[in-house]
Amino acid sequence: MIPLSSASRRMTSSAIREILKVTQQPHVISFAGGLPAPELFPLQEIQAATDSILSTQGREALQYSTTEGHLPLREWIADRAGTTADRVQITSGSQQGLDLVSRVLLDPGDVVLVEQPTYLGALQAMSPYGAQFVEIASDADGIIPEALAEQLERTPATLLYTIPSFQNPTGRTLPLERRRALLEVTRRHGVTVLEDGPYNELRFRGEHLPTLFELAREQADSLDDVHVVHLGSFSKVLAPGLRDAWVQAPRHVIDRLVLAKQGADLHSPTLNQMIVHALVEDVLPQQLERLREAYGHRAGVMASALRRHFPADAQASEPDGGMFCWIELGSGAEEPRTTASRAIDTGALLDTAVRAGVAYVPGQPFFAHGDGRSTLRLSFTSSTDEQIETGIRTLGEVFAAAGDDAR
């Protein structure tokens, strides 16, 4: 038998990817994957951009290129964030960004602070590099700065990973005052912040908030003194199949990311980057308006259906943007929890729900240390109003039956 590395033995499968294998059936209404609505993809615009690029720059688009990425696209990204192109690295999706940043910044045994719960793809990306995860107490407004400060007084950490806007999986958003407090605490303790921002542009309610990277840039003496590494993506706002994302960071971090990416895939597809750049000025603003309107409507439909069909002691988030709704069954209600509601295990009930025609993601994989058995994540973006109503009603019946059986 061929021996495996210790890093490979720390690898885990993605719960979401495994669930999606089971739910790709015509009769299943899937709230499981964080999938953009395919009917909203700007297909004609992408086709026109592709035809134009291949007609006028075909040889360049299909040739090997620089590891850093297509310069005009990097300049556009940098201009919007108040930085420079040499502090931007294009990646093949944000997931690659997570992997490359982990490879560059983490040593085995390093402590990584994460939200409770957090994006399971980040846990999956960092685990092979020997990260030791510590969960920071969080509430409906995200990380509690006082809890973060208390934890850092007890245990030094290398990295804090966070999704401040419309978090995956909870949909919650870190308020401006907490963003400033988080930056102050991490700067004081010498902790690098890894800010994941794939949903930043998908706000359908409330006021826009600056990113952690933007706030840290304003306070730093220079661009290379910023202690935030920012991940961004075009997957959720244009099309995930293009696999275009980016990392913004101080120059010395980007230099190492370039080397890491050279060892991974040499460079992201040039044609795809050129397509994205052709769309960002004229097509992307209109596309964002379409997505915000559609997702805001679907989020409202789901929130209404949850109130009508889920158990009375279930608590559901109502996000101001993004793609997800988070449910806590029997948690946070005014009345004391019943034995039945405590007994509901969303992981154990998934097969029952799929047989009934609905899929979701159990919440437990989003917790670094395996909590959250009575939680689940729902995505509202790629379902019709009718599917949302039918799916939520069916799930409500599944959970109600599970509560009755536990009595």
Give your account of this protein's structure.
- With 407 residues, the chain is α/β, with parallel strands linked by helices.
- It is 44% helix and 13% strand.
- The chain has 15 helices and 15 strands.
- Strands 2-10-9-8-7-3-4 form a seven-stranded mixed β-sheet, sandwiched between helices.
- Strand 11 (315-316) and strand 12 form a beta hairpin.
- Helix 12 (283-309) packs parallel to helix 15.
- The chain is globular.
- It starts with 5 loop residues before the first helix and ends with a helix.
Topology of this structure?
Elements: H1 6-9, H2 15-23, E1 29-30, H3 43-61, H4 71-81, E2 88-91, H5 94-105, E3 111-114, H6 120-126, E4 132-135, E5 138-139, E6 142-143, H7 145-154, E7 159-162, H8 176-189, E8 192-196, H9 212-219, E9 228-233, E10 245-248, H10 251-264, H11 270-279, H12 283-309, E11 315-316, E12 324-328, H13 339-343, H14 350-356, E13 358-359, E14 361-362, E15 375-379, H15 385-406
Parallel strand pairs: 1-13, 3-4, 3-7, 7-8, 8-9
Antiparallel strand pairs: 2-10, 5-6, 9-10, 11-12, 12-15, 14-15
Helix pairs in contact: 3-11, 5-6, 5-10, 7-8, 12-15
